[in-house]
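Long-time lurker, first post. I've been practising inverse folding by hand and with some scripts of my own, and I keep getting stuck on stretches where the structure tokens seem ambiguous. Below is the full token string for one chain I'm working on. Before anyone asks, I'm not after the true native sequence, just a reasonable design that respects the backbone. If someone could post their per-position residues I'd love to compare against what I wrote down in my notebook.
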């Protein structure tokens, strides 16, 4: 079995959904390995836009299997809404979607716990998407979680009630004023669970192992700098978003990993709290936000924008063992008179080229290299060879610094606006 991995190298929202959709024709199985409905993978084709949260981004292609792996946390309510949304596209979900029995379920009280925890943190809040991700992974590692496979037992509601009641006690601990109608949330949850049961639950690690002769693409969510171990802790998500997460989130061995595709934007964005050394508060940042339509696909929150951070990107390439790079939203930078790239940090009076333990240290300042901008509308360009000279120079510089080839440059949101090298 050989598996290619596809991961975000920044703070998420790099455009993974679009690229998975573009690459799916080369694969038989697309498998999501971590995260949950905190993700928002946007796909645009035939003048229509779809946002997927839990379903792998290969779902719009016929005869492909889309697997939600054991490392994913699933909110049945959100998953059912996603399924309804894509039904219009004539997708036979029951034939193309599989769910790992070992994936954990997000209960309504996980979402409430998430909100209570964030509220209690005040100005130090993580900026969570409030989808219950943290509390669900906490129950998983605390060995109290509720797994999809449990739904096959006649007594699953007893287990549900036990966990829910425990959560209700925990919510009190936060001493915050939260209004919620649990009865209504539960009704919706139980209805969605009934729908979920129409999908095949599988022992996904065995399924992948048996799919020996198939081509598999593992799809990551969020980005490397949001990784629970290697991200900007504590301002991170609660799963391993990096390459190792694909092994534990699908049950594949490290030696089955073939290519590692790393996706990054030509600039940087971040949603939620936490350090962001190259963040811009000027007209350049405003322009990125406006032209790039930088609003969270899941929460609608404005994304913070800044220049490309090569120190962080290099770190992400190393942690993931990236073998091929894909640069996204390059068209957004068209018309900038200059483009800056952070090549080093000035940290405690020294110039460094690595990510220090604490990125929020106040003395940390980016050191920039300036490039000439380009004015051409990239969305009209149909091959790598025709890219503007200044952009070519930018790409070559990045490849040299990162020591990894850039094989795709995305020049617009549509499937078709993708240049291959
Ligand atoms: P959580 O995973 O919802 O708890 O959010 C933790 C942090 O990760 C917050 O800063 C979120 O904004 C961020 N985050 C979570 N999922 C995504 C994503 O898919 N894209 C970008 N940021 C995300």
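-- Answer (accepted) --
I ran through it position by position. Result:
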């Amino acid at each position: 079995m050989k598996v290619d991995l596809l991961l975000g190298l920044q703070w998420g929202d790099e455009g993974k959904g679009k690229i998975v959709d573009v690459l799916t024709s080369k694969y038989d199985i697309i498998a999501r390995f971590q995260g949950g409905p905190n993700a928002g993978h946007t796909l645009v084709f035939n003048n229509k836009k779809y946002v997927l949260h839990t379903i792998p981004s290969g779902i719009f292609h016929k005869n492909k299997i889309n697997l939600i792996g054991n490392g994913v946390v699933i909110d049945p309510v959100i998953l059912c809404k996603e399924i309804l949304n894509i039904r219009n596209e004539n997708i036979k979900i029951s034939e193309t979607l599989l769910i790992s029995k070992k994936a954990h379920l997000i209960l309504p009280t996980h979402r409430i716990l998430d909100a209570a925890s964030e509220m209690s943190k005040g100005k130090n809040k993580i900026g969570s998407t409030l989808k219950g991700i943290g509390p669900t992974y906490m129950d998983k590692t605390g060995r109290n979680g509720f797994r999809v496979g449990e739904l096959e037992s006649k007594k699953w509601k007893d287990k549900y009630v036990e966990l829910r009641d425990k959560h209700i006690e925990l919510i009190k601990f936060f001493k915050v004023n939260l209004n919620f109608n649990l009865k209504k949330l539960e009704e919706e949850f139980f209805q969605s669970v009934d729908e979920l049961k129409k999908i095949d639950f599988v022992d996904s690690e065995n399924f992948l192992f048996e799919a020996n002769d198939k081509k598999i693409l593992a799809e990551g969510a969020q980005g490397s700098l949001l990784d629970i171990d290697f991200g900007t802790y504590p301002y991170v998500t609660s799963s391993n978003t990096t390459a190792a997460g694909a092994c534990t989130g699908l049950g594949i061995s490290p030696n089955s990993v073939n290519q590692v595709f790393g996706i990054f934007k030509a600039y940087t964005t971040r949603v939620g709290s936490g350090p962001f050394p190259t963040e811009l508060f000027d007209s350049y940042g405003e322009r990125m936000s406006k032209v790039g339509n930088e609003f969270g696909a899941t929460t609608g929150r404005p994304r913070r924008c800044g220049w490309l951070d090569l120190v962080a990107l290099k770190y992400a390439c190393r942690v993931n063992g990236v073998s091929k790079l894909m640069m996204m939203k390059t068209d957004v930078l068209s018309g900038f008179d200059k483009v800056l790239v952070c090549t080093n940090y000035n940290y405690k009076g020294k110039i460094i080229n690595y990510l220090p333990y604490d990125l929020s240290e106040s003395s940390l300042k980016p050191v920039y290299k300036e490039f000439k901008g380009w004015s051409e509308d990239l969305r009209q360009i149909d091959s790598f060879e025709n890219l503007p000279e200044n952009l070519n120079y930018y790409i070559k510089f990045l490849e040299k610094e990162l020591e990894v080839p850039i094989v795709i440059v995305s020049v617009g949101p549509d499937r078709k606006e993708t240049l291959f090298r």
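A couple of notes from the structure itself: The chain has a mean pLDDT of 95. Residues 156-173 form the longest helix (18 residues). Happy to go over any region you disagree with.
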